[in-house]
Amino acid sequence: MQTRTTKETPGKALAPATGSAGADSRRALIEESHQRCAALGLSRIERPDYEPLMRSDLAIARERNRRLSDRAAPVMEMLLEQIVNTHSMIVLTDAQGTVLHTVGDDDFLERAGKVALAPGANWAEHSKGTNAIGTALFAETPTLVHASEHFMHANSFLTCSAAPIFDPRGNMLGVLDVTGDHRSYHQHTMGLVRMSARMIENHWLTDDYTDRLRLHFHSRSEFIGTLLEGIVVVGPDGRVLGANRSALDQIGQSMAAVRNHSLTSLFGTSTAAVHDHLRSPLALPMLLHLPDGRPVHVSPRASGPVSVMLRGLGPAAPGAGPGADDAALAAPAARRDALPAPGDAVAPGLAAAAAIAAGGLREPAEGAPARRASGLEFLQTGDPQVEAVVGKLRRVLNRDIPILILGETGTGKELLARAIHQDSERAKQAFVAVNCASIPETLIEAELFGYEEGAFTGAKRKGSHGRIVQANGGTLFLDEIGDMPGPLQARLLRVLQERSVTPLGSHKTIPVDIAVIGATHRPLREMIERGQFREDLYYRLNGLAVRLPALRERNDLPALARRILRGECPQHTPEISPAVMTMFTRYRWPGNVRQLANVLRTAAVMAAGEPQITEAHLPDDFLDDLQRPAAALAPLSAAAAPAPAAGRADDTAAAGGAVVAGNARTLQEAEIAMIQQVLDACDGNISEASKRLGISRNTIYRKLRWNPDRPDPARA
Ligand SMILES: Nc1ncnc2c1ncn2[C@@H]1O[C@H](COP(=O)(O)OP(=O)(O)OP(=O)(O)O)[C@@H](O)[C@H]1O
C-alpha cells in the first residue's frame, strides 16, 4: 500500500497523509480492523496482556521457523543499518503473529518490551487489537498503523509498518515489521519494509526452485534483475509452480489463478521455444505477451539440465533430447537432480529421494548412482517402528484409503505424506499442503473451499479456487488437522463424503478427486472425548492411522544423522565425532528430526571442510540446552553410551568413556565431573590432565569456564 505523508512542525509527529486514494483505502482498512476488534470484545483501554510463550515453546516456534529466520537475518541487518538511531526496532513474527526476533535501539527495545513487543509475545489482532503486524496478517497486505490508529491506547506511542512474507505458492510465512516512536515516523519506512519482505520472498523462491526453470520478467527490460522483476517458476510439464509478488502484481491475478496457468497460457510460448532461447549464447530477453495482451520482456533462467526441467509441452527442439546440450547449462559440480519443491507435482523417475526431502536434504542414494530410493524407501534408516509404518503404508498405497499421520512436531509427518504421494499413482499431480494451524480461523474456510468473487469483505478480486480444488487429481495434505475449527470440521466431512466442493458465495459444486492425508501432534481421541473433534470426521480421515516415533524413541539416530549430513555436504561429508554422537543419542530432541537437521546444518557450516564434527562446531543454543537437566534422557552410564571409536577422540565425553561420572545428571555435568576427577588425579596439573584426557588445555578451561590468567576461585 502506498502512503504519502505531510510534514509537520519539527518535533511533532509526522503523520501519514489523508486525502489521497491510498490514504482512503488505508483508513478503510483501519476502520474495518477496529470493527473486528470491537466484535472480538477487545477494549481500547485495557493494558495489553503480556503472555509470552514459555522459553521452551518460543524455542520450538523459532525452530519451526528457522528457515524464515535464517533468510530474514541478513535482510534485518540491512534494515537495521537504515533505521539505526531512529528510536525504532525491527520485528520478525511467524504466520500466527508470534514475535520470533527483534533487533533495534536498546532504549526503544526496552520501551517496546513494556507493551509486550518482545520475543514470544503474540501480536495477532485478536490479542493486541489493530496493529501493523496483526492487521497485515489478517488483510494479507503491507500495513501501516500509526499512533492512535492502534486499537489499544497503550500502543498509541508506536508507529508500525509491516509487510507479510509469502512463499512462492502463496502460503503466509510471517511478517516483517519496523516499529518506532510515533514521533519518529518516516514516510520511507513502509517502502523499505515492503522491499525487505520481497527480498526474503525472492530468496525463498530461488531456494525452493534451484533446479527449476524460472522466467524473470518485466514490462521494461532494464528492470529484470531488480526487486521489481516478476519471477514465475515452471515445472517439467510446463505448469506454473509458483511466482513472486511482483509477478502477481504485473499479471494482475491471484496466486491460485497464476498457479492454474501453464507456460503457454501465461506467456503464449512453448517449452521448445524457451529451450531454444536458453541455448543461444548472449540471448536478449524474449518479448512475450501476458494473457491480457500486454508485452513483457522475459529472461528464462535455468541452473540445471534443461532436458529435465522441460518435458512434455510442445515439440522438442532439434537436439533437445534427454541430456542433449545440458552441459552448457548445468551448474558446475553440484548434483542436478531437478529438486522438486514442496507443493510441486512430482514427475515419476525424478530424484525421488531428493524430491521428498525438498525441505533441505539432498540425499544421493547410497553408493552407486544407478538406482534411486523411492519416497518411502528414503525414510527407512533402520528404526523398526519406522519400518513398520512404511510396511503398513505400502499395503494401502493407491487404495484410496485416507491416512492419518500422528507424531510430535518435527518427526517428519509432512515428509512422510510427500513420500506417500510420490510413491502413489497420483505422483504426477499436485501435492497440496494446508497447515490448518497457521491459517487464521476466519480464513481457513475460504482458503480450503475457495470463494466466488466478492463473497466476503476483503475477498480477493477474482475469487479463488481453494486448496481442495487445487489438489484435484492429486493429494491434499491437511497438516495440524486437530487445529481445525469445529464448524469447518463439518464442512470438510461433507467434502470427504460427497467428493465435491461448493466455494463460499457460490451455488455450484465442483467434483473433486483427492487422496487425503491428515496429520496432527494432538491426541485426537482425547479431543473427541472432550467434544473438540468430530468423531465422524476422525473415522473419515482415519482409514489407516500411523504414528511416527519421536526421535528419542528411535534407535537409528546415528544412521539418520549421517544421512542428513550427507545431504548437507554430498561431496565432503564430515564424520560425527563419537563424543558428539554420544551427546546426540542422550539428548531428548524436543524438536525431533527437524531440530537434529538444523543442528547438523549449522555444525556442517562451522566445520567447513574439516573431516570431523566435534562439540566445537555445535550451535551455542544447543550446547546451552544440553546443560539443562531435563535435556538428557537418563543419567549417563558408560554402558548406555555408544562405545567411542578407536583412536583419539577430541572431546571429553569420548575420551573419558571409562571414567566414572559420579552423580552427574546431564552429559555436561558428567564431562565436568570427569575433567575434575582427572585434574585431581594430576594434582591440578592442566597439561598432564589434558594429555590424559586427550583434549586441549583450552578445552579444559572452556569446559570449566576458567580464565587461564586467573586461578579458579573454587579451587583456590
Ligand atoms: N527421515 C528423515 N530424514 C531426513 N530428514 C527428515 C526426516 N524426517 C524429517 N526430516 C526433516 O525434518 C524436518 C521436519 O519434517 P516435517 O516438516 O516433515 O515434520 P512434521 O512432523 O510435519 O513437523 P510439524 O508437526 O512441525 O509440521 C524437515 O526439514 C525434514 O526434511
UniProtKB/TrEMBL annotation:
SUPFAM superfamilies: GAF domain-like (SSF55781), Homeodomain-like (SSF46689), P-loop containing nucleoside triphosphate hydrolases (SSF52540), PYP-like sensor domain (PAS domain) (SSF55785). GO terms for molecular function: ATP binding; sequence-specific DNA binding. Residues 379-605 form the Sigma-54 factor interaction domain. It comes from the Bacteria. InterPro entries: AAA+_ATPase, AAA_lid_NorR, GAF, GAF-like_dom_sf, Homeodomain-like_sf, HTH_Fis, P-loop_NTPase, PAS-like_dom_sf. Residues 1-25 are annotated as: Disordered. The keyword Repressor does not apply. Residues 1-10 have a biased composition (Basic and acidic residues). PROSITE patterns: SIGMA54_INTERACT_1, SIGMA54_INTERACT_2, SIGMA54_INTERACT_3, SIGMA54_INTERACT_4. GO terms for biological process: regulation of DNA-templated transcription. Pfam families: AAA_lid_14, GAF, HTH_8, Sigma54_activat. Coiled coil: none annotated. Keywords: ATP-binding, DNA-binding, Nucleotide-binding, Transcription, Transcription regulation. This is Transcriptional activator of acetoin dehydrogenase operon AcoR. It comes from Piscinibacter sakaiensis.
